Amino acid sequence: MSLAPQPDSPSRAARACVARSLARRLCALLLLALFVSLSCQRAGAQTVCATPGAQGPANSPALSGVVNTYFPGTASVAAGNSNTSIQLGTMRAGGASTSISIGDLLIVIQMQDGTFNSTNGTAYGANNASGRGLTAAGGAGLYEYVIATSASGGNGSVTVRGAGTNNGLVNSYTNGAANTTAGAGAQGVRRFQVIRVPQYSSATLSGTVTAPVWDGSTGGVVAFDVAGLLNLNNGVINVTGLGFRGGGGRALVGGKAVNGGGNPSPANNDFAYLSSSPSTATNGAHGSKGEGTLGTPRYVFNPQTNTVDELNPTAEGYPNGSYAMGAPGNAGGGGTDSDGTGVNQENSGGGGGANGGDGGRGGNTWNSNATTGGLGGVATASPGAGRVVFGGGGGAGSRNNSVNYDSSGASGGGIVLVRTDTVTGTGTINADGNAAWNNTANDGGGGGGAGGSVVVTASGSLAGLTVNARGGRGGDAWRTGGTTTADRHGPGGGGGGGFVAQTGGAFAFVNGGAHGVTTTLLSAYNSTDGASGQTLGITQAQAPGVGSGAQCVASLTTTKTTTTASVNNTSAGTTATYTITVANAAARAAATTLSISDTLPAGFTYASTTSVTMSPGVTRSPTTNPAAGAAVPTWSTFSIPGGGSVTIIFAVNVASSVARGTYQNPAAATYLDPRRTITSGTATASYDSASSTGEDVTVLSPPTLDMQKRCTSPADCESAAQQPNTDLTYTITFTNIGDQTARNIVIKDIIPFSVNVPAAAIIRSTQFKVGSLSLAPGASGLTLPAAGMKYYSDAINYPPPTPPWNPVTSYTPPGAAGTYDANVTYVAWQLTGTLAPGASASVSFTVRIK
Question: Which residues contact 732 (CB under 8 A, 6 or more apart)?
């Protein structure tokens, strides 16, 4: 017997399967679909991102030295303008030499700005009778991260994209000279700088990372961004003393002849007094104010060269004078000398600089014991994640005897801005203010520099990091020479503590600096300590401007679906169609060098790509598609920006040998890892194929008949010998064990050659009974039309052939029904109707033993 069923769908013809008696055959096709998802941490408030990890890993070699490039801003720029253009000056010598490229992360930061009252009296500074402070902070300390949209090496312009209105700047930035206002509305120089910030995928500290000292235009800031792991590795980030400079200590003995005359005689209650130029170096009085957010004095102490530098020989630094005890903003005031004759011999101490805490006051004058030491700078109002300043420079003590740089005020600490994802190891950030130089002669001591500012954000804990932003100590005054109270000269005031903002876990120290002492008595002589600074807990999202690398890493969601949830397999196989979509979350950086792949099950092979749809902003280069027959089809190379997506629709071939069942398989999106630890490291977003049924495809087997043939009449015909002239009825029962409905079933069988005849006997011993072909349809709906009864008279040699049979000689028995015909060798039932999966029917015929 043989079987030739056909499937329910004519468009997917089932292959003919041949079954022997009691044999069972099973064919199956599995449809697979896959959903892949990569979860990334949610971004903060920022909606603009640069390129996390753009500079790759900085592990070998590790980070050390100067990593930033610095440019002075040379023209004021307003907030809120799209594609803002910033005019830049010359690239700072001593910084990194890397020019700005498109896509670079930059910081724009206002170093100095604000107004104060420059009146020579107690209204000086804040106009509140304190003799110190400011009337408005202006933009001093405001900063933000932006993205370069043009290249620049300095001495030109750079365009930037920010997180403000129209993707412009959040803040305005000002560049301007000091004015000459003698009263309310006074302004010193206003300066801002632009800093290139390296974007590392991961980084390891090695030795010391630092910055060039602030020179009045640029420097003093260390800033870098790590998208992944920052290994502190016992390293140090050091900006101690790199901030605002102390007032330069100068020996002055001729106060009545400043600049050739015209300056009033110095008074013991001066809060502001004009400087003298080098051409009249022996003229002038008091000590110089320190540098701070409100401006720069004419003379500063250079901590790199240990020299007193005159910054502008033709112009005063602070309006109405850069000398005497008034403290502008966070800068320490200079010591006011109470010697009204202008000999400048009373030698009071300079005030300490300020930042998170106020600076301490300088000590009293020598002989008159007057309380005219420099006032301490005033703490920065409301520092935060988006407003940070250098530690203020200490004021100089008044001086007439010593040489070189004695009595100079000390520099404040610089600024450190670090953003990272995770941190390991231990390390230290030092942003302390410098201690003032200790005088060996009988002159006033300088004020200590204030602690600087540090902002560190991370996704995880900062445990292992120690941050120091402590105020510097005030300078001693004739500590080893004087021995009695009559020898006392004014020591310097201590610098105020700095400011530390962090996301949590780091140890922060913002102690104020101690005051100096005088004589062997170690007397404070009315000098005071700097006040402690401030610490603040913040979140990553509070850092101003574009998002950090840790927040901006691509967040991919990969989905896979199918439009062929079930397919019918055939003798020629079948096909299935899939859709893969890879989408990047909004407000994320682009996923670059991205390829999309699908590892197919065994027996599944890539056939063709129907379409590749890219949303606006997505780019693809080079374009590489899978080869026909690939078991792991891969499409590349894409760059998907935040909010972008790629959708691929493709077809696969399923081999006829694929077994029935439901199949799942993984798909993956692989891209350059923004947190990589090696240069070419990649990240792969894979989906758990068992987590969803949306991509599942079930392969259905073709109609397959389980057939059993028995001699059913007489009842014991298979077990007992039969006599000649006995009719034997054979019944073939068949069941559809496939997944599809069978149609056009054709069953063929051979007329038994002999019955219980010795093998040596090769003569035919049976005859077919004409008209005995029949069908018992059961519940199948099959019918057997008269035209469906087929007879053949092909020759059969002994032993009879095995299935499948293909008789070709058609034959019509000449006798009437009930007669017997020895010429019929094969019979066939050509059935009409259908046989559903699981349904059974049977056919039968009768032969007579000769």
Answer: 1, 707, 708, 709, 747, 749, 842, 843, 844
147/799: higher pLDDT: 147
Single pTM value for the model = 0.83
How do beta strands 619-624 and 634-640 pair? antiparallel
pLDDT digits (tens, 9 = 90+) for 175-211: 999 998 888 999 999 999 999 999 999 999 999 999 9
Structure-block tokens of residue 568: 């019918």
Per-residue pLDDT band for 755 (boundaries 50, 70, 90) equals low
d(CA 120, CA 432): 32
**Cβ pair 247, 393 in contact under 8 A:** yes
Whole-angstrom distance, CA of residue 200 vs CA of residue 679 = 11
Alpha-carbon distances, residue 503 vs 213, 389, 460, 499, 633 (angstroms): 27, 19, 8, 14, 44
For residue 255, name the pLDDT band (cuts at 50, 70, 90).
low
Q: Which helix (H) or strand (E) holds 283?
A: none
Q: Is 147 exposed, middle or buried (0-12, 13-18, 19+ CB in 10 A)?
A: buried
Structure tokens at 472: 């510097």
Overall average pLDDT of the 458-486 stretch: 96
CA distance 632 to 601: 9
CA separation for the pair 409, 353 (Å, rounded): 9
Measure the CA–CA gap between 529 and 794, rounded to whole angstroms. 121
* Alpha carbon distance 336, 396 (integer Å): 10
Using CB atoms within 10 Å of the CB of residue 383, give its burial: 0 to 12 exposed, 13 to 18 middle, 19+ buried: buried
Q: Tell me, what amino acid is at 611? A: S
How many whole angstroms separate alpha carbon 342 and alpha carbon 719?
Answer: 142
Instruction: Measure the CA–CA gap between 510 and 357, rounded to whole angstroms.
Output: 9
Q: Report the phi/psi class of residue 306: left, alpha or beta, with left for phi > 0 and alpha for psi in -120 to 50.
A: left
Integer Cα distance of 99 and 110 in angstroms = 21
Residue 140 has pLDDT above 60, yes or no: yes
Q: In this predicted structure, what is the pLDDT of residue 43?
A: 34
Question: Minimal CA–CA distance to 200: which of 176, 221, 170, 229?
Answer: 229
Least Cα distance to 301 among 218, 391, 405 occurs for 405
Cα–Cα distance, 143 to 546 (Å, whole number): 11
Q: Which residues contact 655 (CB under 8 A, 6 or more apart)?
A: 573, 603, 604, 605
Q: At 777, is the pLDDT very low, low, confident or very high (cuts 50, 70, 90)?
A: very high
Query: Under a CB-based contact definition with an 8 Å cutoff, are residues 547 and 48 in contact?
Result: yes
Residue 760 has pLDDT above 60, yes or no: no
Peptide bond into 61 cis (omega under 30): yes
Which stretches does DSSP call E strand in 714-769?
A: 727-736, 742-743, 746-750, 766-769
